[in-house]
Amino acid sequence: MLTYILHLLLLTTSVSMILVSLYVFFGYEARKNKVPFIAGSAVSAVVAVLLIYFTKGNEDAEFMFDLWQIATNMFLPYLLFKSGRKATFALYGFVLPSFSDIIASLISSKIGDISENETILMYIAIFVATTLLIIILRKALPIKFTPEFLETIPVYVYVIIFIYLFSNYYSIELAQDASFHVEVANILKVVSAILVTVSVVVIVIRYINVLNLQKEAEKQLEAEIHHYEDMMRKNSDIRSFRHDYKNNLFSLNALMTDGRTDEAQKYISELAGELENTSNNYQTGNYLADAIISEKSENASKSGTRISFSGTIPKDWVKNNDLCAILSNSLDNAVRACEPIENAVVMVSSKETPNSVVISVANPVTKRVEIKNNRIKTTKSDSQNHGIGLANVEKTAKKYNGYMKLSCTDAEFELKVGLINN
Q1: Which residues are CB-neighbours of 379 under 8 A, at least 6 positions away?
Q2: CB 289 within 8 A of CB 301
C-alpha cells in the first residue's frame, strides 16, 4: 500500500509543479470546461496504479512508470489550459522535470545507495521545493511573464536544454559507473556548453526586451493617466460655467441695458472661449473616460478615423489607472488597425448595471484576424508590444473577476471586456 501511495504522490507533485508554474509564473488561463482535465487526471492515476501492480518486482517497472509520468506531465496541461502553441506544453512538461533528475542524481551521488521508497521521497521533496521556488520567483521578479513569452521561445532552445541536462546526467552517472564512456561525456560537455551559452543569450535578450517594453508601457500609461486627469480638471470648468449660467446672463443683460455693447461683446467672446476650451464630444458618465475617448478621437481623426460611443461607463468603482489601461490599449489598437481603411469608424459601447459593466471596442478590418484561444496571431512588426497591450487589458479585467474576449468576422474585429463590482 505504501508503494502505491508514494508513487501517486510522486505523480501528483510532478504534475502540480508543471501546472503551478504555467498558471502562477506564466499566467496561463484555465479552460471553462474542466471535465477533460478531471477525466485525464483520473485515467493517469488509474494507469499509474496498474503499472505498479502488474510490473511489481520487474526490473523495468520504474522505467515504465517514469515514461507514464513524463507523458502525464506533457498532456495534462493541454487538457487544463488554453494555449496558442500546444507543443509548448509537451516541451515544457518534458524539460522542467528533467532538472529534477539532475538534482536527484547529485544528491544520490553524495549519500550513496538508498532504497526505492527513499528515492521516491527525495523526488517528491524536489518537486515540492521547485514549486515553492516558482511561487517565490513569481513575486520577486520585476516583470510578470505571459503565455506569449513562453510560446515564442524557439523549439531549439528546449532541445539545447535537454542536451545540457542529459550531458550533466551522463557525467554524474559516469562518476558512479565506469561503464559510461569518458569520451562521450567530454563531447557532451563541450557541445552542451556551447549550445547553452547560445540559448541563455537568446532568453536573456528576450527577457530584457519584454522588461523594457513593459516598463515603457507602464510609464506611458502613468503619463496618460496624469494627462487625462488634467483634462478632467479642465472639463470640470464647464460644470462651473453651467452652474453660473444665470449669473452670466444677468451680467450680460445689465451691460446691454446700460448700452455698454462693446463690453458685452467682449464678455460674450470670453465666455465662448471658456466654453470652447472645456468642450467635450463624449458624455460617458465618467469624466476620465470622456477625456480618454476625446483624446483618442482627436488623434484618430488625423488618419480619417472616427470614434463613436454609446452607453455609460461607471464613475465610482473602476479605478482610474484600470480604466485608462482598458480604454487606451483597446482604442490604440483599434485606431491603428483602421489606418489603411478610409472613413473608418471605431464603435465603442458600454452596457452598465449596478454591479457590472461590459465595454466593447469594435473596428472594421479588411480581412479576418486569426484568433486562437483568445490570442491574436499577428505578423505585425510591433506584435510583441501589441501583445503586451492586450495582456495588460486582460490582466486588468481579471482584477475585477472579469474577462477579455476577442472575436473577428470578415468585416469587424471586436474586443469585449467585462468587469464586476465586487
Answers
A1: none
A2: no
Q: What is the pLDDT of residue 385?
A: 43
pLDDT of residue 402: 92
3-state helix, strand and coil shares in percent for the chain, rounded to the nearest 5: 65, 10, 20
**Residue 81's beta-bridge partner residues?**
30
- Delineate the domains of the chain, giving CATH numbers in brackets: 2-141 (no CATH), 282-422 (3.30.565.10)
Please, what are the averages of pLDDT over each run of 10 residues along the chain (422 residues)? 86 93 88 91 91 69 78 91 80 82 74 79 91 89 75 74 66 56 61 68 71 64 62 58 57 70 71 53 83 86 93 90 88 91 94 93 91 69 54 88 92 95 83
Judge if pTM exceeds 0.70.
no
Chain-centre distance of CA 207, in angstroms? 15
Closest of 221, 225, 151, 204 to residue 387, by C-alpha: 151
* CA distance readout (Å), 332 to 69, 149, 231, 349: 46, 22, 18, 16
Length of the chain: 422
Judge whether 420 and 343 are in contact, CB under 8 Å: no
Question: Cβ(368)–Cβ(377) under 8 Å?
Answer: no
Amino acid (1-letter code) at residue 55: T
DSSP H helices, 258-382, are: 261-277, 287-301, 320-338
Start-end of H helices in 244-286: 245-257, 261-277
Q: Contact, 146 vs 80, CB < 8 A?
A: no
Q: How far is CA 287 from the centre of its chain?
A: 28
How many Å apart are CA 203 and CA 276, to the nearest integer? Answer: 52
**What pLDDT was estimated at residue 51?**
84
Q: Residue 348, Cα to own-chain centre: how many angstroms?
A: 23
